[in-house]
Every structure is written in C-alpha cells, then in structure tokens.
Amino acid sequence: MNIVLGVTGSISAYKAADIANQLTKNGHDVHVVLTEGGERFITALTLQTLTKNRVYTDAFDEGDPAVVQHIDLAEKADLVLIAPATGNIIGRIAVGLADDLLSAVVMAAADRVPVYIAPAMNTHMYENSIVQDNIGKLQELGYHFIEPKESMLACGTYGRGALADVDTIVETVELVGGVAAL
To answer: Is 155 a catalytic residue?
Structure first.
C-alpha cells in the first residue's frame, strides 16, 4: 500500500519512527507529512531514513513546479494514517480547514481512501466535549479512529489519551490493507 503518515505535535511523535519503520519493513511505501509541531518532537531525517522517502513539511515547498504536492500525495495514497493526532489536527479536519500540508492532503484524499486517526493528548484534552464532538463528526463522515489507551501520560496524569500501541496501529493498517486487497 501507498500510505501517507501524518505526524503532528505530540510527545508521542517519537513513536511515529517505529510506525514508519514497521510499515516500511512490511512492504508499504510510506510518505510522511510532518507538521510544524511534529518537527519539534522528531526530525524529518529520522523518518526519511526509515521510509527511504522524502518527508514533506511545507505546503509551499513544491520542489517540482509541475506537481501540486498535496494533490499528488492524496492521489497516490491508498490510506492516510495520522499518528499521533493532536486535538488541533482533529479540529481542523472536522471544520474543513486545509491551512497546512497535512490537512490539505486529508481534505483531498478523504473521499477516496480510508483515513485513520490515532489521537494522542492529555486526558482532559481528549475528554473535552469539543474534541469528542469533532471525533464524532468525523466518524459520521467515515473517518476511522484508533482509540488511545489509558496510561500514565507525559504530564503525570493517568488516564485515556496515550497513543495506541504501535503494534495495534500497524495491525489496524495491515487489516485495512488485507481487506483492500480482496
């Protein structure tokens, strides 16, 4: 599968390296879109080395004038996975904003391919009624969520909001790939 992996600004961004590595080792072509917040937690070089593909960070860094980057990524994708997904990206997608590369790719891809979102944030943020409303709205629109787990969070709070286990995320993607291949 050709997978677009969105990585946003969560402390769990370091786990995106394991996700990208496992998906690549399993034979998938992984193209990472790293948000500005994500770049504060993990480097593009790490993800590029693991996927053997360019990492995309800027909607306006087109590289090839004949290619519109966000459309090209969306059209080539068989699946979009956002892991970790912050409340910010969930909210932006839910209200139809496409003001950065990742949200633009999602907007261009969502009606054609499955979009899987793996939230990762503080318990109070995850349980916030606005975040929950946004998740519900996106689920009604056909977006899929990989539920966060309960754990001790980086902030010291124990509760739901930790990124799902890497194996759970990879297995979910593999299952979708298996279904898509039938």
So the answer is: yes
pLDDT tens sequence across 61-101? 767 766 668 888 999 999 999 999 999 999 999 999 999 99
- Backbone conformation region of residue 159, classed left if phi is above 0, alpha if psi is from -120 to 50, else beta: left
Which residue of the set 155, 158, 175, 180 is catalytic?
155
79 forms beta bridges with 3
The answer to whether 56 touches 30, Cβ cutoff 8 Å, is: no
Helix (H, G, I), strand (E, B) or coil at 128: coil
Q: Would you state the structure tokens that stand for residue 141, as one six-digit string?
A: 């629109």
Q: Phi/psi class of residue 64: alpha, beta or left (left: φ > 0; alpha: ψ in -120 to 50)?
A: beta
CB 72 within 8 A of CB 33: no
Summarize pLDDT for 146-156 with one digit per residue, the tens.
Answer: 999 988 778 88
User: With contact defined as beta carbons under 8 Å apart, do 38 and 9 qualify?
Assistant: yes
What's the distance, Cα to Cα, between the start and end of the chain in Å?
Answer: 13
**Looking at the predicted structure, is the pLDDT value of residue 181 above 50?**
no
Name the E strands within 12-137: 29-34, 79-85, 115-119
